[in-house]
Amino acid sequence: MVSAKKILVVDDEKNIRLSLEEILSRDGYQVTAVESGEDALDLLDAQQRFDVALVDLKMKGIGGVEVLKALRQHAPQTVVIILTAHASLETAVEAVRQGAHDYLFKPCQPDELRASIKRGLRDQQIQRPELLEQIEQVANHLENIRATLIEEETPPTVPSQAVTDTVIGKKRFLTCDDLIVDILRHLITIGGYPLDLTPTEFDMLAYLAQEAPRVVSPQELIDAVHGYESEVWEASETVRQHIYRLRQKIKEITERDVIHTVRGIGYTLSERGW
Questions:
Q1: Same domain for 149 and 120
Q2: Lowest mean pLDDT among 1-10, 84-93, 134-143, 262-271
Q3: The whole model's pTM is what?
């Protein structure tokens, strides 16, 4: 009989701890929940080992980044997923630098969390230095990236079929109107200005760019980004929240409604004039 995977939850919000413990226990995981970074370090010092750790970034005393560092020292095989309501590009860089597998905003949907855990367990032995390098480049050279995109490597705007061909041909860029997806740098810009996106948001917007102008259903988006099938209502709710956050970030750059909703069907990237 295969033993249950062990998950450590580190969060100073009681309701979050109880909710995660209930959800993951029902999924068959062996869950240990603690309310502080200090408690987490005590478990590690006592030689406790976990397959996955869900770590809140902002806590009183020892914070999530310190817990990440301790996990890398005591249990480098542990898959670490950051859960936070307060995030920035700088904290994402630091979390990835310390070995975080994923970076999710609270409150996240259960299916989104489950998918992240499954991906982490599946890829547990795979190192990800390329992702760290890409994020650090974004953090340290945003203006240089803009200059590079504009002066050296910005491809011409191409129709949607050519956008799909760039993926098939393993080229660097996806383009849709003035939106450019840079696969190498894991960066999306609009009008030359970079978007500050989580990995999930990047994957979702990149997939819409790849498929534009085709309308993509929420279920297809979940399957493409997270790799699992979901019920219609579950997919709709999860994708709706991500689309909302994407639109808020896009509005910081342009007033144009880049993501177009086709009622009852799904989402597509809109062209100028929509």
A1: no
A2: 134-143
A3: 0.48
